[in-house]
Fold this protein.
Amino acid sequence: MATFNVDNLNALSDLHPKPDTTFAYGTAGFRMKANLLDSVIFRAGIVATLRSKKLDGKVIGCMITASHNAAPDNGVKLVDPMGEMLEGSWEAHATTMSNCETNEQLAAYIHTMVSTLNIDLTKPARVVFGRDTRPSGDALVAALKDGFKVLDAESTDMGIITTPQLHYAVRCLNTQGTPEAYGEPTVEGYYKKLADAFKVLVEGKPRSSSTLILDCANGVGAPKFQEMLPFLGDSLAVKIVNDDIVDDTKLNLNSGADYVKTQQRGPLGLKMNSQDRYASFDGDADRLVYYYADEDGTFKLLDGDKIAGLAAMFIIELVKAAGIDNVSVGVVQTAYANGASTQYLRSNLNVPVSCVPTGVKHLHHEAMKYDVGVYFEANGHGTVVFSPSALKTIYTAEESSPAQAVAIRLLRALSEVINQTVGDAFSDLLLVEAILTQRQWTPKIWDQAYTDLPNRLVKVVVQDRSIFKTVDAERKLVEPVGLQDAIDAIVLKFRGGRSFVRPSGTEDVVRVYAEAATRSETDELAYRIAGLVFNFNSNGSGPRPREFL
Ligand code: NG1
Ligand code: ZN
């Protein structure tokens, strides 16, 4: 077995000492206060190197971001060769490595991985990395690069980019020169691919007379979307707001997709009028929500569920019009999807709907079971994946009428405008704009597909969230024993009531979701269940749940 230079490891590791903290690679990688992350990111660089060597030198991605969190936080996520999230078993290796207390333990764990996973250290390792606009990014990049030095990885720095741009680049680099070639592995290549496809999708259709006001959460989406505008030319008119990336205290503050979705209101200070349509990205531009103001000024949200419904509707109709009905379309949601959206998909669109646990990797995996799989979390993170056989059918279909020719052309362009590696706010925005332009729809017409059931998401701070265990795609609690029965008894008393409880994978809280027939019943239901959880965990340590409503 080839070995590695332990002195080199020790010298580098000494520069990145582990603080007295326990780390876990969660649903969104490692994420916490940036000042605790130095050793974690250094070691993530080692894990990425080992992963690349294990996969025969395939390029692995590292993204430094904390998405919709505030600027003092940061994090790192690793990206597998096709642009997908790191394989589950390696998340566990990343966790173990991040928790090694001494240099000796770290060296021993690297040896263990090398021998148990049969990693040939003489193989090359290639990694590509990027980061968002957080000021802590620079120092964390330095730690990551030191991690690459341990086992000699060859690295490419993509600078400040969005999370989905990094996922895109990873897939491009690994498919270059193959029949699955995904595109040019540069941000310019990304802009060009998306913009060219978008232009095909809106060709010959009048542009909307209203403006798209785009809230970039004062994050990386602002400079990057600005950079894409010249590629789009006059095919899309956008006004960017919340684009201050200099004052880091503004990042995701009172703005952005997470704020708009959870607060169910527009970004603070944004005056909305009923003529325009609005969209928000999150801090690393992988989430997107739309919204508009009704004539009477009422705020109306078009979230990830609405985007999934719009995309599924459009794709199903195109597949039919193209005469390739053998291509199966399915939608994947989580338990947070609004009940009305699931009902609309099943009953109006007659499309199969799967429900999976929270976390993009679960959605992505399930979506790959369909020829065309549409997946979205209600919070606006999602995309569409096309199977190789669906792409083959779409690219080899022969038209027998002008209408079929149009449908086939549009389907091909759709498969190009959609970032198939991961949820991508830029790509999803172009998808929505293309469909609205094709249909000549306003957001209000889009919204008429179904009416959301009132819903409420509440956080409960408890002493130990690990005691909450769920089954059935997180819709039922099996532990603490008895709590689910108590929840069921309360839910039964509410018209159209639905509620579930699960521990968060990214925050130290338990989440309570509730839906019911009216706003007041929903709030009451959410409050009652949150109170139950708080009392059940007699160590409930946060503020009383009532304060969250
Ligand atoms: P947790 O904290 O596990 O609920 C949140 C989101 C997920 C996903 C991850 C990763 C909700 C209710 N949960 O997970 O959908 O986006 O963050 O960012 O929105
Ligand atoms: Zn994000």
